[in-house]
User: Fold this.
Amino acid sequence: MDLMIVAGVHLDRAWSQLGGPFGVALRQWSRDVLARVVDEAHRRNVGALVIAGDLLDRATAVPATADYAAKVLGTFRGNVLITPGRSDWIGGAGPYGFQDWPTNTYIWSAAEYEPSPTVPMVWASAWTSPAGSSPRVPDAAGPRVLVRAGMGEADLDRLNMRHDDLHITTGTAMAGKILTVPDLVHDPRAAGGYALIVDGDDPNRPAERVDLPAQPGRLVEIDVARLQTTDALAASIDSALEVEGPLLVRLTGTLAPTVLLPGFGGPELPPGVVVDLDPLAYGRATPDSTDRSARSEFLRAMVDIRTNELERHQTTALGLAALDANAQGA
Assistant:
């Protein structure tokens, strides 16, 4: 029996860091891609579909969405096995309790590793709270596929790394006997968007990657190191806007002290465009110690301001722009 393994559908996720239009596009795509996964599993004639965590987002999922997921998964001709993960941990008034799930679907509900009653070789450990470590794996005869979403390096110490077991998780890629499944619906700054097929008869055979259509939205990176003016940054962003659909503009490199950023007095952005400033470094102008001009005194004063680098940069750039405008008008 072949197993098709997917993770991170994130139904009803807010995607607040990406803004409204981007979030709407990804939420719609999460519904579409779940149906595509079932179609692809049918096309490849796999016996079981394993969802390794984060099918739903517990904090934002509504009953109608859980009902949609149940109906789509109910159309699969084989067995559906769901391992609740960090964002859809099971227990209490969570989304898995909103309605009855189809007879072909089994959802793990215990933190301890347990075998599936329908596909006994697949064992899983469910997240039953927002935090916690992976439990130890009990001994059992024969090879197993062991599923635990969102394992970290610290969890490896608790695993019984038997040579005939295959461990499956999500998140940061791990080597050796750990197979990492990426999120199908993901932040455009992260890799993802594909499923894996594992040979149920021989879990030690290399997994097969299954590519699915790309999700909406694009990531465009702009290196600001050579951009010395706000106008130059605006021109680079205008070129990026030629991409259709939601757009994430990621600024990298070291920003010149005089360049103003979008949203802070710099270039205006249309709806649906989000700027990622996390990789950005901020350059500083160092005046000559003998220079007593207003510009130099202002730069020296900014050194003593206690604030984060982004606020310091924008305050400095705005002040320099004002001083330059004043000097040109004099």
In short: The mean pLDDT is 88. The chain has two domains: 2-211, 218-329. Helices lie at 20-43, 63-74, 230-240, 294-303, 309-329. The domain at 2-211 is CATH 3.60.21.10 (Purple Acid Phosphatase; chain A, domain 2).
